[in-house]
User: Fold this.
Amino acid sequence: LGFFDPSKRKTSSVPCFLVNFLSPLIFSQFTTEQKHIKMKLAILAALFGSAAAFAPAQTGKTTTALNAFESELGAQPPLGFFDPLGLLDDADQERFDRLRYVEIKHGRIAQLAFLGNIITRAGVHLPGNIDYAGDSFDSFPNGWAAISGPDAIPGAGLAQIVAFIGALELGVMKDVTGEAEFVGDFRNGALDFGWDSFDEETKLSKRAIELNNGRAAMMGILGLMVHEQLGGELPIVGQM
Assistant:
């Protein structure tokens, strides 16, 4: 995706991304002859996507969005303002803030998910038992298999996890008091950790770091989930 300029047609990168990302999952399910057919179709789709990238396109809307949001936090080198799907075409500040809110929240969740995968696959688990039956935390598999499959945690345990996340979403991880200084500020007048002691330049730097780490974590946890289905072994992570 990083090779597409924002001024190009917004839909051009989608087929290429889907082909590159999904082809290992798709092709693994077919026989050799079927794989050849699917490969030809994939190449054809990629060619169409590549051709679309060089086709004439209307650039007015893109230019408008670029001018409006190119100075926002997160529009930084090497890509700068990057909106290949055109989500900000004709968007106002409220629309941008909503998308930024979602991006930050997903990034924070992805960082926790990626770190959780790394830690548990390294053999670090909570002590004790997960239920009254005496099943220990380390007796369950890592990753997606921990919540789905024959060796997954009990259904009641999964329900508790979902309920806990729902409670956080509805009542905690949001601007409850209306004191937020920026999108994604969930301190609510209680948690500070010295934030108010930083100057504005430092605050912007730390927010940019969090945003970039969240973006990397979203790609990271998605990659781990894919490789978990494909199997094999990864550096640092280990056996999938």
User: Anything to note?
Assistant: The longest strand covers residues 233-234.
